[in-house]
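I am hoping you can look over what I have pasted underneath with an eye to the fold:
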Amino acid sequence: MIYFLPNLLSNSESKNLLQIFETEKKITPSSDVSRILSGTKNSYGFRPISDDFNFYLDKLKSKVIEFNPTITNLINVNTYVREYRNKSFLEKHIDRKDISITMSICLESTIEKEWPLNATFNDTNYSFNTNVGDGILLFNADKILHWREKLNCDDSQRVVQFFLHWKPDFSKQKEQKTII
């Protein structure tokens, strides 16, 4: 399932994470360098080292669980930040098997148009644009085809997305009430 989540982070939270991204970007090489066919051309991505990003990963777990009450706990799999620039795109893909829940949150957008995330689920196409602080939540991201078309903008413009990835933890089953 796919959900659009407006105002998931406040403007100040988004700016705070963006500042941390800018600081870490200066000292952390892009993880894309080692990828021959990254599917994310002309972009910069890395796994943040700051605990601030992981704080939000933990904080947003409860939001995910609200949308799927059969899940009682989530296991953090991956935290990632990507800066998209002119001619960037995200190829059509499904996430790896260990990432079944994906949340994408816009931290910054200096472009002057929409640049939606597209997805296909049950033969239906979805397209969601995110403004700063908005998020998109995908359950079964390892089965749902999703992508972004090529971004056409000025070379000085960009979009920064914060990605949170989990898998359900079924080791603890939700307690069920019975009448006996």
In short: Helices lie at 11-27, 51-67. The chain has one domain: 2-168. The beta strands are 2-5, 43-46, 74-84, 90-93, 101-109, 117-121, 124-128, 135-139, 145-148, 159-168.
